[in-house]
Amino acid sequence: MISSSPRSTVAILSIAILALATPLLAQSMTDAEKLAYYAANPDSPGMGRATGGPDAFGYTFTDSAEPDGPTFSWIDITGTGTAAALADDDEVAVPMGFNFDFYGTTYTDAYASSNGYVSFIAGLGGDFTNDCPFLAGTSPDEIVAPYWDDLDPGDDGASLYFETLPVCPIGAGGMCTVVSWVDFDFFPGDGTPGGTAGSFQTIFFDNGQILHQYADGFLGDGASSTVGISSDHVDMGNSLQYQCDSAGTITPGLAIEFSPIAAPGTLEVPTLSTFAKGTMFALLAGLAIVVMRRTQA
To answer: CB 266: neighbour CB atoms within 10 A?
Structure first.
């Protein structure tokens, strides 16, 4: 028979307590501590693989080049959606059709800019100079940027389209709002149909996820654009940039998905079921009895 000393038994007990109690301790973490936990444990349940992030709020992104990334699946709304003929540095109001949560604030309306971005604040659609990176006090507040650049749809009659779909044909099957920039030109435009920048779209899902997609005929490559998301608290780290002024990073058929880990106060970490908790405490009690008996022997 192999015997062990009280000290070795205590060591084993300590290791068991740490291994079994860690998930319980995680339940009382603050949001900041949970984000740090996920950064240190990227394979933990509840934290999907991502190619960028998390930012201070918890957003991450992954693109279609990743094995577990989104699949490019263009949603054509040119025949069913609302068409907006925008002028240079113009914007149009887009009703979301549902409550959309963005950096902890719920919105029912957005404002799509002719310069390749959406803001949840009215009157900010005229910013044609993309920031690299997003800057506090300079970048438009509450911005979702699939392709923020100096674009000009007016010269060749290009349109921006938007539509809310009760059942989204992609994603989890809930509602979604699609905003598509179709055949857009770079400023000052070439005056002929076709678009020197091309077509791209952003899809807002009712679960808070955001998807950027770039059509097969997309001609921009990212050399003078910013792609990402940002709140009005950039200085607090609430922004996530996919690329900025980087040629060759945006290609036809690319899809980029931005996902919040969860809203503040609801970030999830691994937890134990009631049965598992009971089993753990029974095990710890049994180990404690063994230690006491060996100590008294």
So the answer is: 10
